[in-house]
Amino acid sequence: MQALSLGLYVHVPFCPNACGYCHFYKCRPTASSVKRFLGQISLEYERWQNVWEGRPFETLYWGGGSPSCLDVDALRALGRLCPTTEHLKEWTVEVSPTSITEEKLHVLKELGVTRLSLGVQSFNVQTLQKLGRKQTPQQVYDAFEKMRAVGFKNINLDLIFPPDFTSLEAWKADLKAAIALRPEHLSTYCLAYENEAGSFTPEAYQRVDNDHEADFYRFTWEFLEQNGYRHYEVSNFARLGYECRHNVNTWRMQEWLGWGPAAASQFHLKRFQNSRSLDYAFGETVENVSLTEEDLCKDCLIFGLRMCDGVDLNELQRRFPEVDLKIYQPLWERFEREGWVVFENNRVRCTTKGLLLADGLASELL
Ligand code: SF4
To answer: Which residues of 279-312 are buried (b: 16+ CB within 10 A; e: fewer)?
Structure first.
């Protein structure tokens, strides 16, 4: 097997808010809950240090919850518990406009954090209220200014479009406000409605293709490309060289460890997730799946097709020499006939129409 790159995700499960759409595991940050969390991370370190065999982490990602809820001492303590070496290429921390402060930003900078992801979601007060977000647009502007002032040169803005209660005009205004700040990266997620799961019939394809939601996607993709952001994954855009390495590592089915409650890992042909409790016990996972080379190869195709560069099938065959890629040929022929994918030098990638149907294509590949 080729040498894979290794990432570390730390789930910081604290947030005082309760946004209506939030499914992340979280609890209120108190002195005792933060202490218990840091204790668990320290145990993760001990548990794993013999297993990852000294392989350096190339990316580190603190997500949540809201890591910026931690006070400066807890941020420092968490930083000390994360194994970082000169091989670390990217360290991202998610921050919230309501809890990030200049002092915390200085601590993150001193720790070696290279990338921040700011939870903006919207600049529109009505949309924020409907999402249940407690912040104001001014708090976003203030946070962004502080992040730049402290010296962060790689910033992502997270945005959400909820087609059921936002007009396309309001969404365009959000995108304009976001690019006016000139961030290096933008993530734009559609508020998920899980009504179509698993039922991608030809009629469903037709419906999604004609859908109101598709107008939001099409506009976003065109508008951000026109403004210098390369569209590199269904929901992600970056200025050249600022793609999120950690997420690309995941979509390319490399390896990662997840520390903290509810954090998921993929390591040594196993995929597992810690249980959703601050007091999770090691080994008591909510998911523990052994992966075959065929499983991983299929996931490379599913997640690779969500990336605008698609999948190099020669490279895939080199990584999985035992897997018979010819079994996908009938599907490729149909996808190509429908105008969902194109082939260039044995690389398969989605067309715009195919990207709009990425979840449906994934169901078919499964
Ligand atoms: S701020 Fe983030 S973590 Fe907190 S409730 Fe809202 S979506 Fe969830």
So the answer is: ebeeeebeeeeebeeeebbbbbbbbbbbbbebbb
